[in-house]
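Hi L., both proteins are below.
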Amino acid sequence: GETTSIVGPSGVGKSTLVSLLLRLVDPSSGRITVGDDDLAELDATRWRALTALVPQRPTLFRGTVAENIRLGVPAAGDERVRRAAELAGAHDFVARLPLSYGTVVGDGGRQLSAGQRRRIALARAFLRDAQLVLLDEPTADLDAVSAELVAQSIQRLRTRRTVLIVAHAPDLAESADRVVRLESGRVLGAAEKAA
């Protein structure tokens, strides 16, 4: 139920940490525990079903906006897709697209801005309703308006979930319950924010 920010300079291991938590790679030494369970011993497919990733550069596949939002929950109905887009701050721009949620995006489709792609990825996370959400530099390279919309969406996403934010942006990092600073691949310090 906490939101933790991982901060540190480029190359320090923040993205590697995300890969480890998604079980895309296993630790070469040490272990990661989830409660009392060793993550390496948990079924990777079942574990990933409990997680959602919002990468810094989300991939949009050729398909409609609705299909791209449904990526992790293919059977989701239109109302759930729309609600997820609203929570992610994406509905307003999607509604202005030529065919709204039926507009084709991705390879050869309508081009979306970095902020719009990030909000589609956030809508995926809302729709998936995962227990652990990993956000990799969610406001990096966005203009001020888009970054604010994404930050507002993240605040809504934090409800009833554990969220890990990999961030360079100090304001986004400081909004977390706990801030962990990495340097040279090691935890330099972890600070719990006062309530």
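That was the first. Here is the second:
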Amino acid sequence: MTMRVRTGLMLIVATAMMGLASCGHYTCGVTFGNSTCSGGPISLSGGSGSPDAAFVFVADGTASPGSIQGYTLDTNVNPPTLTATNSYIPPATPNLDSGMGMAVAQKKFLYTAFGSTGQIYGWTIGTNGSLTAVQASPYLVSPAFGTSSTFGFDTHRVITNPAGTLLFIGDEFGSQIYVYQIGSAGGLTAVTGSPFPAPFSPGYMTTDGLGSFLYFTDSLANHTGTEIAGFSIGTGSNLGVLTAIPTSPFVGPSFNMWQVEGEPTGKFLIGTKGLSDSVNQQEDKNLYVFSIAQASGVITQVGAASPTTYSPMSIAVQSNAGGNLVYTFGYDVAGTGFNAAEAYTISSSGTLSAVNQSPFSIAALGSEGQFDQSGGFLFEYGGIFNTNTVIYNLTFFDVVAGAPTLPTPEQTYGGFWVATDAP
């Protein structure tokens, strides 16, 4: 990516977003109250209740060899903490390669792919946040994978279906999608027919909330998108086999999306054009909703665009059953910082409504976000150039006491990342 702003890490418990007061960067007092969201009530479970409520893994591609760094969220202390995992041994990864995406399946297995070697690495996640290589890992995708078909640097090019039984990997330069079945011990088996040809270079990938369809955008280098493609996902004896959706790819001004994300009911995709002044010299302050025809997977824009305060570069959507939150993230106009995160609810008819007190200035620390599987924790990732070095901060905000903790010492790793509830 060519941004002046890149990725670093912080965590916010999502329930806090219903009552945040606006304040500055790290240095203000915060009060939390009971407020409601204009789109309806929000119910969040907020993790497992175990000392290790969630883990975050970050690919460090700045060294030879590279590694996967691990962090643990402990909610049984007051205030809760997000710190480097105790006694954690970072597994080695290819030299100077931050990977091209990360995904967690079933809260038990972690996967990432590396274009420099054409390999997929897989690990079992321990209850203490440790990583142990699954059998036969790393997997060589193909002899030419690291040369003529190198994976490019993008987000959401490694994803799973909601059940965590399938792994999808988008090959940017080969314009194809690799699909693997995930075994009970985390081993990968290529689906018959994989890799499947794509009509264009796959960018952001997502499934619908039920795992019936796979969608991806034609994401270009300047953070824009021009069309959306869709495939139905086979089941039973054809598990993971991809078949193009009728009329796909979807082309036209309505489908010029940088990112689309499914929501848990499987009825809608939420999209953003991903524009920002610092990259494109233009912005699009809107979110877009597309309905999904349940029988065919054909998508159609629902109503007019939904206005936002800032131009959303990326979005995070609650995927847990009953989840209805959508968060947006992006770069500021100068490209040297981040806009405040915004929060919306999506109704059963596909209407987006802003959450009270959104946007949240305290959550202006990243350009990307992720929810955990429970939908109770929101993680935000972001970093800023400082004297030609990208500086990354790892920060947790305690939403019970209302006082944010100080950030941990700055880190200079950086790469793809993923958050997951503890197994």
